[in-house]
Design a protein that fits this description.
With about 250 residues, the chain is mainly alpha-helical. It contains eleven helices and six strands. The chain has one domain. About 40% of the residues are buried. Bound molecules: iron/sulfur cluster.
Length: about 250
């Protein structure tokens, strides 16, 4: 079994373990931590070749569309509910609603051209850094100036990324999707802002989703979107990330 396949299988196993705990809120917290451990350990193994230019306060990449799995969105919403005060949550939900009314259903290109800022970016820093989606962890750059150029002119996006780090997190995301498929759930990705708009508004969202209500349907990206197509369905029910797809094709 390849290294990436092993990572994917580990993420699938952990996702299924959360389901056994009925997706209770505490289970979501520890689920995110185990994924982070898996990713950080794998990145550590390749640190000599990483050479990332990413640093705190640099947020050009936070003006691109983010796709995620539903449990990742639930974990972020859970953290916000538990650790933010009422005023902060209210300000955030206003930001999310305004952005979602403009960006809903837009493609990666449309999002990047318009430079929509992630609603979770506060004073240039990710406000949910420890719970940020796997997509955000997958993004890595070896050139800040290339990120700046991409921010200015998204259609000419040409950012050098460490493909190994990218593959680590996309394979973890594939593992989560496989975990969901094995529970009889959808393997569709959701757009982060639209999904948070739902997750922070709907009462008992974890329970409703766990019980099979299709509450995140509106936030799902198009099945023909390149980011969804990057996760191929093999052997009838197994999802695998195709490395030929990058953040941009
Ligand atoms: S979740 Fe955090 S890291 Fe990801 S785009 Fe938003 S602010 Fe940036």
């Amino acid at each position: 079994m390849s290294y990436f396949r092993e990572l994917s299988e580990a993420a699938q196993f952990r996702t299924r373990a959360v389901d056994r705990d009925s997706f209770a809120e505490a289970a979501l917290d520890s689920w995110v931590l185990t994924l982070e451990d898996l990713g950080a350990g794998a990145v550590c193994d390749c640190r000599d070749s990483c050479n990332t230019a990413c640093h705190e306060g640099c947020s050009f990449c936070c003006h691109m569309r983010v796709v995620a799995t539903v449990p990742e969105v639930l974990a972020i919403a859970n953290e916000i509910r538990l650790h933010w005060d009422r005023r902060e949550i209210s300000t955030l939900t206003d930001r999310i609603e305004i952005l979602n009314s403009k960006s809903h259903g837009q493609s990666d290109e449309e999002w990047g051209i318009r430079r929509y800022r992630c609603p979770l970016l506060v004073d240039g820093i990710c406000s949910v850094y420890n719970t940020r989606p796997l997509d955000c962890r997958a993004y890595n750059s070896q050139s800040v100036s290339a990120c700046r150029d991409a921010w200015k002119s998204y259609l000419e996006w040409d950012v050098p990324v460490n493909q190994h780090v990218l593959a680590i997190y996309k394979n973890l995301q594939a593992g989560v999707l496989n975990g969901l498929v094995s529970m009889g759930r959808s393997s569709r990705l959701v757009e982060l802002t639209a999904a948070l708009n739902i997750a922070l508004k709907v009462e008992q969202v974890v329970e409703k989703w766990r019980d099979g209500e299709p509450i995140f349907e509106e936030a799902e990206i198009d099945p023909l979107d390149p980011e969804q197509l990057a996760f191929t369905d093999i052997e009838g029910s197994k999802v695998e990330w195709v490395p030929s797809d990058s953040f941009r094709d």
